[in-house]
Amino acid sequence: MAAARHFWHEPSEDVLGAALSAVIKVRRIRPQVARALPPEEQARALAAVLDPGEPLAASLLVALHLGQRRPVLATFLDAAGLAHDDGILREEGDVQPLPEAAAREGVRALLAAYPREQVETYLNTLWLQDPDRWRVLERSSDWLALAQTPLS
Known about the structure:
two-stranded antiparallel sheet; 2 domains
């Protein structure tokens, strides 16, 4: 529900049509009615969609993290030593994959501060958005191993 609420505050034009289609389908209403629903009703309907499709699901995950879970982003990026503005990465030149040591520190900081399921959701979101950059975060078993491995 939190993801759907945040999504409707600033819906991405790329997936707005898919979101409205999902609301129309789940509520069985006409398009003009779906567009006229208050944001809270749109959020409830969108949260009830079992399979929103990959692009909309990705947008919902981003909305969740940029909204309610922004401190999670800042915690990870600070601990990993990555420059950011309130949890939003600063793109600086050529983007390189995250080094294992930086990932280890980021994951440790997250696990110390947040519930494991929130950490897993965030790390999955990073990896899904850019598998090359976040390659080290590909599997949850790797994250836990990273967090438990001593620094060399």
